[in-house]
Protein 1
Amino acid sequence: MFTPLPDKPDHPALELEMLEIWEREQTFERLRERNRGGPKFRFMDGPITANNPAGVHHGHGRTLKDVFQRYKAMRGFDQRYQNGFDSQGLWVEVEVEKELGLGSKREIEEYGLAEFARRCRDRVAHYSEVMTNQCIRLGQWMDWENDYYTFSDTNIEYIWAFLKEIHDRGWLYKGHRSTQWCPRCGTSLSQHEQAGEENYVEMEHPSLFVRFPLKGREGEALVVWTTTPWTLPANVAAAVKPDAEYGLTEDGRWVAVARFPDETFVKRAPGSELVGLEYSGPFDNLPAQAGVVHRVIPWDEVALDEGTGIVHIAPGCGAEDFELSRVHDLAVVAPIDEAGRMLPLFGDFHGLSTTEVAEPVVASLRERGLLVSVGTIVHRYPICWRCKTPLVFRVVDDWFIAADEIRQPMLDANATVDWTPPQYGKRMDDWLRNMGDWNISRKRYFGLPLPFYECECGDLNVIGSRAELEARAVSGLDDLQELHRPWIDGVRIRCEQCGRDVERIPEVGDAWLDAGIVNFSTLGWRNPEWKPHGYATGASAGLSGADLPDHAYWEEWFPADWVSEMREQIRLWFYSQCFMAVTLEGRSPYQRVLTYEKVFDERGKPMHKSTGNSIELNDALDRMGADVARWLYCAQVPSQPLRFGYGLADEVKRRLLTFWNSVSFFVTYASIASFDPSAAPAEPQPLDRWLQSRTAQLVRDTTAEYERYWTPGVVTAFESYVEDLSNWYIRRSRRRFWDEDPAALAVLYDSLTQGLRVVAPVMPFLADHLWRHLVGPDESVHLAPWPEPRDVDDALLAEVADVRRVVELGRRARDEARLKLRQPLRRLVTEGAPLAASHADEIADELRVKEVVFGEVEASELRVKPNLPVLGPKLGARLAAVREHLARGEFEELDGGRFQVDGHVLEPDEVLVERVGRAGWAVASEAGVTVALETALDDELVLEAKLLDRVHEVNVLRRDSGLAITDRINLWLPDADLLEQYRERLMTETLAVSVELGDLRVERA
Ligand SMILES: [Zn+2]
Ligand SMILES: [Zn+2]
């Protein structure tokens, strides 16, 4: 009834087979059905960008989500399994532009917005299917037919409702300001999109020192420094630090004294005395500069650690410059168009890009004697988060949501959230304290159409729903296929103030509005009536069958008990959904968050296609298998970058193989013994009781780790359990399995079926495969209940833990003394593991010694050194004295591996302890436990070693002759001395019914 297992698992093959079984048996559907009506575990999936195949970092996040949904399902929780796809915005557009070979916004418009929108939707449809298949292969259980897509009309309508609320509160405004601008994408970008460190790269730029001649002061000029020559034609002012000292050099240059301490200055003055002076601008001849008066302004923020201490100010080209223009009433000269090219009023520079214009600018300055020097500089420079083009600044109109009023309510909401790991909650607080107003508009095409209708009467009409749009539309409704450009642009509405016809502004919305609203849009907030398939509207029709639930449902499922995404989502999804939920409902949309760092390669380097160390998710799943990948994901502490690669996968495979072998061992002997799990259990032996307790401890520990959303704790607990199970219980019980001992079989069966259940969420394939070998081919571990807690005999576990420490050290001492384990020894002395005292027989047996003594180990010399990286910071200057005392042997050994030295108590991790065996002893020591083995051999010990070698040899011969484990044999041996001394043992240990003198030979009896 138990089918044997092969030597090792073929993970990918076994997983594909399991996927078919789950499909055939409808395992997931049965699980959901079983849990329906149970207590709720409210999980909200953050939408994944359906724009490319999923990568290994997506596999990481998806695994964590699946692990905890599976855990909660085993515990009987009713859950939503709705997957989300992020499906509109700049990322999709940029990829479709590449596909179509379009290089600019003009080309998109020539191509046609309707066809462009279709292409964007098609791309999302394609990649959402690709990703779905990848996630299924990874083992993720989701309601794949009913995904939410953020480009659905319903999702868009919910954002409209939010924006109308924002407008009613007076938080919505159109800002005229200088923002970071991508010249390729032709749009401004927001603070939260650009904040990631990956959006900065090292770049080489020109570095210029330029003279601005002072008016009315012959021969004197300000000297400024800039790395952006394209901004010089837009210069309107020069800023000095009022309280800094400036000096005039002999050749007529004004600079900050602090910057050039070795210069000789003919005149000195505080910055405040330069304020108000007028100068000739570097490009006064350009039409764009007509009428601009250039003067010196005060600015406390002028840096004195770079440049000249005098800063060139161009309000049309920088955020701070623009702010200064408001304070000092400066002209704003904007030099570039939306593609980053110089405007017509800039003369010969017209049409050049910001890079192309650098050379003629420098040439012109040089020709007119304004160039002091020119070189290059390498510095960190921002690039577009989406297309990697270097950014510039432009002064444009953008739409913003004011953040000041909501800042404190969001901080209060975040204080109610449990963050794992906790330090990420503080990062969220930092983000909220520093967040600027939310720039929600993008000058693009395939995105949320902002429902803003600006009327020339001055009124801003904000539409809050499709129904409102229809009620107020005066034209264009008939062609409104979905709420996207170009169709939405054709709808004009009547101004509520003056009755004029108004058209929509052309801008679309920030994609984080799309993702942030899903706690409302997918759960039916304020929806009066449940609509079957009611979420699958607009572009998502035909892709999803999702319902739009009613408000009562929203009440049941909001807020989420748990969400999980990467750390960068603090400034993205965690932020945007918190912003929206606090606005609409005054509370956080999630109660617990698990967040985690990036995936690196196995040496801890970032993965890049260009460096050849990146791994495709499909490749990883095909080669290592999903369980192994999931194990790597789960083993990692989330606050550290995750290491991922095939070498690490091989290590995981080895550990999983140990468990596989344990199950295989059981199956082999359970078959031989015709073991019946339903039979009344036999009386367990002490080692069985230990395993029962050890298993109860595993259940207790892993349950606690799952409850705190800490997968590395689950992995560690399971790995150490497998080590104990395999290398202690099974190894020490082999003989009982040969003897078909019913207690051993029953206890091992029970332990394996408990262990499989607690590990099933992490490695769902292998766990179910093995479960079916143990419990039955039609049973699934995923439908099994979570193991009930049982009593843990902590005292017994501590005893055996001490025993295992002594045995481990005994082995190490043997290894170092090159004494093979088949060589029996006379005596072992151990100290520091007092709980092991009642297990002396087991220790003697394990380490093959005749006598085990618990007492002081005098057979060694103790050498103690400071562990400098730990002890140095603790002791500081007192370290030297402690070190000397240790070197002279002036210390006292305390309990638990601690030492008293020079008035300090040193903990075990603060010292490096070495015990060196005296002659005739092999010694090993660690963390306060010492084991010493007497190495001297006498004739009896030597003969017994010969016996054990022979037994080993015979058993190899048995196996090589094709004999079954249980076959009895007739045995011939050449060793008269062994036959005389050890006849009985020879027979028992080789299953021989007779043994005679002769050449080594075995035959089946
Ligand atoms: Zn871009
Ligand atoms: Zn009006």
Note: The first strand starts at residue 40 and ends at 41.
Protein 2
Amino acid sequence: MSSDNTSHSGRAAPDELVPSRYALRIGEIDVLVVSDGVLTLPSAMLAHNADPAVRAAWLDDMFLPPDTFDWALNVVVVRSGGRTILIDTGMGVEFPGLPRSGRLALRLEAAGIDLASVTDVVLTHMHMDHVGGLLVDGVRDRLRPDLRVHLAAAEAEFWASPDFSHVSMPPGFPDALRRSATRFLNEYRSQMRTFETEYEVAPGVVVRRTGGHTPGHSVVRLASGGDRLTFAGDLVFEVGFEHPEWYNGFEHDPEEAARVRVGLLRELAATRELLVATHLSFPSVCRVAVAGDAFRCVPAFWDY
Ligand SMILES: [Zn+2]
């Protein structure tokens, strides 16, 4: 199999062998999960408070290699009430050495979604793998001038003076995250619409601040015609079902992040609604089951 048609620098890749998009409907709301690619990072990021042997055993049980982990990078497009809403924007080209990410623009194009048709962007938080897509050269010019960018006020405030004292990231990441967030605030400030606790972006599309991963981290709740789906951003990772108490290296307040994670997973297990999260393996559409004192991710059945 050739990978030529997925070259990072190459324009339009509408003929990718794997389209990397997954459509579903939540009542009247159209939902499209689009992969921005994958981020290959050291496995230790998965759980910096776990016994390395236990972490290695988890990877082995999942048939994964011991040293690096490929993080999925899912973005969601939602259409409701005449609005087209992009939830997070992928990595763009914000960090060197992650050439398999930053595909969002190409994959939106391949899906027939023009950037100029996007009316709203919702940011779960301001890490570069969530805002980077809007910082790629030329993207801003293709967006509508009246685009609204929604995020929690607490998130914008946090990045004015971010605290990295509880994270465990690879070298270079804290500086790069600071730089990207600062650039984003500078470039998009006039279009930002901040909210305190929650905001209804379109009918049945509500962004709600949870905190945890970052102080202004938010999730997006979709509800229409009795169907429900939650986009959990970075509250839930692949290890988070079995080991919700494991601290992810990118969490700025890992204790709070674990507490919020457990609360959300309990709620989703009770409501039986669908879950999609940024870094769960594409397309990540699943339901949450309780398994003893932890959880289980039950993939949704293909029904197209
Ligand atoms: Zn992330």
Note: Residues 127, 129-130, 234, 278-279 surround zinc ion (CB under 6 Å).
